[in-house]
Write a structure and sequence with these properties.
12 strands; 0% helix; 6-stranded antiparallel beta sheet
Length: 180
């Protein structure tokens, strides 16, 4: 079902964006995909994505989108993670986007969609009990402190559009014995 409304939020050296989500069961995450684009002025640094465990305050996954991943038109871009396992927890996770090395005055834009939706809608179903909208923070503030993040809108609950590639196949165990 297509959305009747969408928007995009900028990420640059001074503006970071995040989306809170919860997982209902253990999930092996191998890739995250977002919809985004870059400004006509090419950013001189990558767009970083971090997944923060809000219970422990620790970053559990980090990925980097390169400048070349983005065009000036909206499109899907992905970054892979080396087998990250997200487990259910009390306060969920926060996926945040930053571009701290981008000093060219250029921006990346990440698509948002109207939140509070149900059904096959990619991002909103991860909302769980968390405030179901994106948040922003000024670059330089500690991203691991929840109270430093401000709701992106006080009137419309926008969600960052994202989806995970999930690998729920457990690895096979093996024993390696010495050859002698």
């Amino acid at each position: 079902m297509p959305y009747e409304a969408s928007s995009a939020v900028n990420v640059d050296q001074t503006q970071y964006r995040s989306q809170g989500f919860q997982v209902p069961a253990p999930m092996g995450i191998t890739k995250v995909t977002i919809r985004g684009f870059r400004s006509a002025t090419i950013p001189d640094g990558p767009l970083q994505v971090n997944i923060l465990n809000r219970d422990t305050g620790l970053v559990v996954a980090t990925g980097t989108f390169t400048t070349g991943d983005f065009g000036t038109a909206l499109g899907n871009v992905s970054v892979t993670f080396p087998g990250i396992l997200l487990t259910p927890n009390t306060n969920g996770y926060k996926m945040y986007f930053s571009a701290p090395a981008n000093t060219a005055g250029a921006t990346y834009s990440v698509q948002t969609v109207f939140g509070q939706r149900v059904g096959n809608d990619m991002a909103a179903s991860f909302g769980g009990g968390l405030p179901n909208q994106y948040y922003f923070i000024t670059g330089g503030a500690n991203q691991q402190v929840d109270s430093n993040w401000t709701p992106g809108s006080t009137t419309i609950p926008w969600d960052v559009m994202f989806w995970f590639t999930i690998d729920d196949i457990p690895p096979t165990q093996g024993v390696t014995q010495p050859s002698n």
